[in-house]
Automatic annotation (TrEMBL), chain A:
It catalyses: L-glutamyl-tRNA(Gln) + L-glutamine + ATP + H2O = L-glutaminyl-tRNA(Gln) + L-glutamate + ADP + phosphate + H(+); L-aspartyl-tRNA(Asn) + L-glutamine + ATP + H2O = L-asparaginyl-tRNA(Asn) + L-glutamate + ADP + phosphate + 2 H(+). Allows the formation of correctly charged Gln-tRNA(Gln) through the transamidation of misacylated Glu-tRNA(Gln) in the mitochondria. The reaction takes place in the presence of glutamine and ATP through an activated gamma-phospho-Glu-tRNA(Gln). Residues 52-64 have a biased composition (Polar residues). The lineage of its organism: Eukaryota, Rhodophyta, Florideophyceae, Rhodymeniophycidae, Gracilariales. This is Glutamyl-tRNA(Gln) amidotransferase subunit B, mitochondrial. One of its GO terms (molecular function) is ATP binding.
UniProtKB/TrEMBL annotation, chain B:
It catalyses: L-glutamyl-tRNA(Gln) + L-glutamine + ATP + H2O = L-glutaminyl-tRNA(Gln) + L-glutamate + ADP + phosphate + H(+). Subunit of the heterotrimeric GatCAB amidotransferase (AdT) complex, composed of A, B and C subunits. It comes from Gracilariopsis chorda. GO terms for cellular component: glutamyl-tRNA(Gln) amidotransferase complex; mitochondrion. One of its GO terms (biological process) is glutaminyl-tRNAGln biosynthesis via transamidation. This is Glutamyl-tRNA(Gln) amidotransferase subunit A, mitochondrial. Keywords: ATP-binding, Ligase, Mitochondrion, Nucleotide-binding, Protein biosynthesis, Transferase. The keyword Amino-acid biosynthesis does not apply. Residues 67-508 form the Amidase domain. The active site is at K119, S194, S218.
Length: 573, 536
């Protein structure tokens, strides 16, 4: 059936941000671009599914599994463990050239060029105004927070921040682009020439540039058999809530050599941007999006091969798998003497392969030119200095410091600095006097275990860093045993409380008075005459039995050393 | 209904005396002109300021003033076609509100009750805004342009929307998709453009002032063709928020009025920074009226040599010569100055304007508002068909040329080179100002109003008419078009004063001084009066 696009537009549109009390008649409904016009308005079902469903859960698990593996810490990372023989063969013959383009939604309250909220809302076309709808006469005004976050992200990636930068128009017609041009930066991006170091190998991946731009609207392709895809759809719905949300695009040099390096690059970038507060960088929500450019060439040659673009990669696991798949696929094509086609491919999670999305017919001409509605951007030196001062310690710096200052292993340092919350918690407990190594063990061990079981994050942990330090000092000073602490940890994490007070209240202190212990031990010996005579007959292994019984009889509070000494004394009497 | 805005001056004799003697004007004659100013005038030739006073003092009312303008529209507009839409009820309720405020002792502001029309490429909330294009037929904006809102906040009554060349692209108002506006001085001629509707409406008293937009001369040229005062402010002096962009780096909103004094009053209200437009200047707004008074002694003007070259109509160059003589007599030092880059400005202007337009007009795609083709098979057909049906020929020509100029491989040769010419011209002009000139003088256009259809099929000829007005746009300078004479065939002639960037008040001061000494700005288009009489 021929597809048809027919008008369905609510022409009277009024912005909520404007003067007066006009109603926003487009609000709450999609702007519909109908392929087959049936005269109806968008169904309520359509309204409900503003945010297209994403099946992230399994990918996320795969992702986590992968990240653990690649965090092998000791430097001995099993990169090639999952490498198929086919990929190995391909890598022997060919050299992959891989570059990444990441789009990151900035964590601002309002959109890039207007005052609309960026808060996710379920109802389509509610966070909209004449500017982000491309209404006649509306002009963009740059949100200064966008510039700040972009510049800080650039600083965190070691880029040179341009004191003079400029916005440009990128012209192309698409229904999700209300002005039919995107306001982006072409010639003078805000940041250039940075790098990111991969922790596993120490390899530096160059950052070519970082620039500011705006997000497009969300399209939803509808109709029988469409299943959310354009192909076979009868009409499309457009939700402009996302239109104009600020993005930064970060383009890497083609320095990446394989799938796992790409995934590691992505994860480290995500970590850094979360650290500096650029974005929450959630791939599931689309606040971090990854595109990959990949070509291969015979090893030892210098001409670049034909580039394939990989899109719609929803997790770092997909990034890794799709790249490794693509290396093998392209190698097979070249092995057969054929040519790789210039195209955009997407990762099919179920089929575990990349599939053609669209074939590029020549290069598109975006007819970039300087955005005349926005004066060139000049950032005062003092402002840049202030932003630089605001820079937090970055993950790599923390990793190094934790190893040097606290003698932690690279693995522990990596885990503790993985996210800001954990790192802060760790540092706060040291600040409160905790021994770094013990604090690290508690955080990565029992505390994490309890939180995981309850499926909550460290933010909701009721055991404050100060109380963790308090608990560790109780153990260090021999006031409680490690066992008591382990028994208490679940309660402390979930309900809170000051460990020293709980120990006092519940009388959990270690008993180290030999006289008290002697009483307990004597009673245990008395109650076990059989074992006593067996021991006396030479079954010395039963000493352990008496230790265990005695400690149990003390309710775990008996000091093990004293108990040992007293037992020896009484048994060998 | 009685017409408060009846005709204007009785001084046509003195004006024709000027014309018959295109030489120096004696002090004596100037005094004679000034003395004419003391004769009582009708409301149309009275400064807006005075009319506002009489509304405030309840000598007259906003509603009465509006009724006058409305009945004038009823009589005259069928002959002139200046308006695309007039919302009578809405205007009446605005006027009533002003009168009520005054009755309650509240001051509605410095434009209390003044009926003002708005060029139809400026956004008016709840009033159709079409840019004279089919692609926006029936479109009603959700918001007021900042300039319009500031007029309303100052007590103005928004009367209606005036005709223009589609999206401001043209110099005759013939490229309107809806109607052909006629020059009230000679109904067989164009009113100029693209703000032709606004100019004709002001010239005929169908409103007391109007907003126009000026990208390459679109306020000044129709003002000169219709014998009124048209002011193009410095780029950024008035917010563009709500101006349906043609060429963003050149577009300005400005007033078309009877006099420089009126223009100053409107500027006072509209100028200034705006959070909705980051190209709007944040520099403080001067008190324009404070600059109006005083003579021109100590000021130095440069008549642009190249603008009085042979291709300029003799009647026009004579009138401009006379105007400079008046300025001299007012104490100014007038010399000639050369702008070598003038011959290149038209080409540069069109490359820049068309390129920007090709992106600015991309949003008219039929997806979110406006006309959409109904039987397209896919989205690219939908765009093509909607735009093919929605845009007129001239707009399409300009969009295609602009798209071409920005294409990969041509950008450097066209757009970038045009920007270099722009920079060189700006440098030329800067040098002139740095050499001590306070303003530059040129004709507004090389000819008076031409015949309808005369240049319609020769777009290049139409473009060349903009040579003298374009420099102010390319360099962002304030410039005023002032009536300075009539041709033997009774068509108005205007001359242009271009000032230094952000010295809008100086330009208006010069205009006011000139108009204090002359009466050309009080000339009346008799032709339309005659045809009204005929049709009655």
């Amino acid at each position: 059936m021929a597809r048809q696009v027919v008008a369905f537009v609510n022409p009277a549109f009024v912005s909520p941000f404007l003067r007066g009390t006009s109603s926003l008649s487009a609000a709450g409904s999609f702007i519909v671009s109908r392929h087959i016009y049936d005269g109806t308005t968008p169904s309520s079902a359509a309204r409900r599914c503003v945010h297209m469903s994403t099946t992230q859960a399994p990918q996320k698990k795969a992702n986590q599994g992968r990240s653990k593996k690649s965090r092998g810490g000791s430097g001995k990372r099993e990169k090639k463990s999952s490498t198929s023989p086919g990929l190995l063969r391909a890598l022997q013959t060919y050299e992959p050239i891989i570059g990444m383009e990441m789009h990151v939604q900035l964590a601002t309250k309002t959109k890039a060029y207007c005052n609309c909220s960026t808060k996710p809302v379920r109802t389509p076309n509610t966070n909209i105004c004449p500017v982000c709808m491309g209404h006649p006469g509306a002009l963009p005004v740059v949100n200064s927070k966008v510039v700040e976050l972009a510049a800080k992200a650039g600083m965190a990636l070691g880029c040179t921040i341009a004191q003079y930068s400029r916005f440009d128009r990128k012209n192309y017609y698409y229904v999700d682009t209300p002005k039919n041009y995107q306001i982006t930066q072409d010639m003078n991006p805000i940041a250039q020439k940075g790098s990111l170091q991969l922790a596993s190998s120490g390899k530096k991946v160059g950052i070519t540039r970082l620039h500011m731009e705006e997000d497009s609207a969300k399209m939803q392709h509808e109709g029988a058999g469409a299943a959310g895809r354009l192909t076979d759809s009868t009409h499309s719905l457009v939700d402009f809530n996302r239109s104009g949300i600020p993005l930064i695009e970060i383009v890497s040099e083609p320095d990446i050599s394989n799938g796992s390096e790409a995934a590691e690059y992505g994860q480290e970038l995500q970590r850094i941007l979360r650290y500096v507060g650029t974005s929450d960088c959630n791939m599931q929500d689309g606040s971090l999006r990854c595109d990959v450019n990949i070509s291969i060439r015979p090893r030892g040659t210098t001409n670049f091969g034909t580039k394939v673009e990989l899109k719609n990669l929803n997790s770092f696991a997909s990034v890794q798998k799709s790249i490794d798949f693509e290396i093998e696929r392209q190698a097979n094509i070249l092995d057969d003497g054929d040519a790789v086609q210039m195209e955009t491919r997407t990762w099919d999670e179920k089929a575990n392969e990349t599939k053609t999305m669209r074939v590029k017919e020549g290069a598109s001409d975006y007819r970039y030119f300087p955005e005349p509605d926005i004066p060139p951007l000049q950032i005062a030196r003092e402002t840049l200095e202030k932003w630089r001062k605001d820079m937090p310690e970055l993950p790599s710096q923390k990793r190094e410091r934790y190893q040097a200052e606290f003698s932690l292993s690279s693995y522990d340092a990596f885990l503790l600095s993985d996210d800001v919350t954990t790192a802060q918690y760790f540092e706060d407990s040291i600040e409160a006097g905790a021994d770094p190594k013990q604090a690290a063990n508690w955080i990565m061990g029992d505390i994490t275990k309890v939180l995981k079981n309850e499926k909550i994050g460290l933010r909701l942990c009721k055991l404050t860093p100060k109380n963790l330090a308090n608990m560790i000092s109780l153990i260090d000073n021999g006031i409680i045993s490690g066992k008591i602490a382990k028994d208490l940890i679940q309660e402390l994490v979930l309900k809170g409380g000051v460990p020293s007070e709980i120990v006092d209240e519940r009388d959990l202190k270690l008993i180290s008075d030999p006289e008290v212990i002697r009483e307990i031990v004597a009673k245990v010996i008395e109650e076990n005459p059989k074992e006593l005579s067996a021991y006396k007959d030479g079954k010395s292994r039963l000493f352990g039995f008496f230790v265990g019984k005695s400690l149990a009889a003390s309710g775990g509070k008996g000091d093990p050393v004293t108990t040992n000494n007293v037992l020896k004394e009484l048994l060998d009497d | 209904m009685s017409m408060p805005i009846t005709c204007f001056v009785t001084s046509t004799n003195s004006i024709s005396r000027f014309l018959s003697r295109p030489s120096l004007i004696s002090r004596q004659k100037l005094r004679c002109c000034r003395s004419l100013r003391t004769t009582p005038r009708s409301s149309a030739s009275r400064p807006i300021n005075e009319i506002v006073q009489s509304i405030r003092s309840r000598e007259t009312s906003a509603s009465r003033l509006l009724d006058g303008a409305l009945s004038r529209i009823e009589e005259i507009d069928p002959h002139v076609n200046a308006y695309l839409s007039v919302d009578v009820e809405d205007a009446q309720s605005q006027a009533r509100r002003i009168d009520e405020q005054i009755a309650r002792g509240k001051d509605p502001g410095p434009l209390a009750g003044i009926p003002i029309s708005i060029k139809d490429n400026i956004s008016t909330k709840g009033q159709p805004t079409t840019a004279a294009s089919r692609i926006l037929d029936g479109f009603t904006p959700a918001y007021n342009a900042t300039a319009v809102q500031r007029l309303i906040d100052s007590g103005a009554v928004i009367l209606g929307k005036t005709n223009l060349d589609e999206f401001g692209m043209g110099g005759s108002t013939e490229y309107s998709a809806f109607t052909e506006t006629r020059n009230p001085w000679d109904l067989s001629r164009v009113p100029g453009g693209s703000s032709g509707g606004s100019a004709a409406a002001v010239a005929t008293g169908m409103c007391m002032a109007a907003l126009g937009t000026d990208t390459g001369g679109s306020i000044r040229q129709p003002a000169s063709f219709c014998g009124i005062t048209g002011f193009k402010p410095s780029y950024g002096r008035i917010s563009r928020h709500g101006l349906l962009a043609y060429a963003s780096s050149l577009d300005t909103i400005g007033p078309l009025c009877r006099s420089a004094e009126d223009a100053a009053l409107l500027m006072q209200v509209m100028a200034g920074a705006d959070g909705m437009d980051s190209t709007a200047s944040k520099s403080p707004v001067p008190t324009f009226s404070a600059y109006l008074e005083g003579d021109l002694s100590g000021l130095r003007f440069g008549v642009v040599e190249e603008s009085l070259a042979s291709e300029v109509d003799t009647e026009v160059s004579n009138a401009v010569q006379n105007a400079t003589d008046v300025l001299k007599s007012l104490g100014a030092d007038v010399q000639t100055v050369s702008l070598p880059f003038l011959s290149h400005v038209t080409a540069a202007y069109y490359v820049i304007a068309y390129s920007e337009a090709s992106a600015n007009l991309a949003r008219y795609d039929g997806v979110r508002y406006g006309t959409r083709a109904v039987d397209a098979q896919n989205s690219s057909d939908m765009y093509a068909q909607s735009r093919a049906a929605g845009f007129g020929g001239e707009v399409k020509r300009r969009l295609m040329a602009g798209t071409y100029a920005l294409s990969s491989g041509y950008y450097d040769a066209y757009y970038l080179k045009a920007q270099r010419v722009r920079a060189a011209l700006t440098n030329d002009i800067k040098k002139a100002f740095a050499a001590g000139f306070d303003a530059l003088i040129t004709p507004v256009a090389a000819t008076p109003a031409f015949k309808l259809g005369e240049k319609l099929h020769d777009p290049v000829l139409m473009m060349l008419g903009d040579t003298f007005t374009i420099p102010a746009n390319l360099s962002g300078l304030p410039a005023v078009s002032l009536p300075c004479g009539k041709t033997e065939s009774n068509l108005p002639i205007g001359f242009q004063v271009i000032g230094e960037y952000m010295k809008d008040e100086v330009v208006l001061k010069i205009g006011h001084a000139y108009q204090q000494a002359t009466l050309y700005h009080e000339m009346v288009p008799r032709a339309v009066e005659a045809s009204v009489a005929l049709s009655v």
